[in-house]
Amino acid sequence: MFACLEKFSEENNIKLEEEIKTKILMHLTNLKQDLEIRFQDTSHGDQWIINPFTCDLNTVKMNLKEKEQLIDLMSDESLRSIFKTTDLSKFWIRTEKEYPLLFKTCLLKLLPFAST
């Protein structure tokens, strides 16, 4: 159910009651449902933002010019290397000049989730 919580409990000799585990599970389930309702437009068609190198081009929601930029980006081995070692936001900032359409879309999608 909660692998990290169970591991932590075992390592620290903490025994959680089933009632507490049930409440945590209910809370997380409700939170998941609430987020799915609030962010319905964040669909699988935007998975390319999370990892542009493994996305399925058939499920991508974008116009032809954006798709061409994505194909070019997917072929860019230097960016692939940077992607593996860089924070997602910083990665997309690096793409601004070479892939401006992708950058703009990512900016609009990621901006609401910026941390302080």
Structure explained in plain terms:
This is (apollo) hypothetical protein. It comes from Parnassius apollo. By secondary structure, the protein is mostly helical. It has 2 domains: 3-38; 44-113, no CATH class. Helix content is 62%, strand content 0%. It contains 7 helices and no strands. The chain has helices at 3-11, 18-38, 47-50, 64-74, 77-85, 88-94, 100-110. The mean pLDDT is 85.
Largest sheet: none
The proportion of residues forming helix, as a percent range, comes to 55-70%
DSSP, total strands: 0
Helix/strand class: mainly alpha
Overall mean pLDDT = 85
* Secondary-structure element order, N to C: HHHHHHH
List unreliable stretches of 5+ residues. Answer: none
Q: Please indicate the percent range of residues in DSSP E strands (runs of 2 or more).
A: under 5%
Number of domains: 2
Q: State the helix count.
A: 7
Radius of gyration: 19 Å
Termini gap: 31 Å
What is the general shape?
A: elongated
Task: Compile the SSE list and pairings.
Layout lengths: L2 H9 L6 H21 L8 H4 L13 H11 L2 H9 L2 H7 L5 H11 L6
Would you kindly provide a brief summary of this structure?
By secondary structure, this protein is mainly alpha-helical. The chain is built from 7 helices and no strands. It folds into 2 domains: 36 residues; 70 residues, no CATH class.
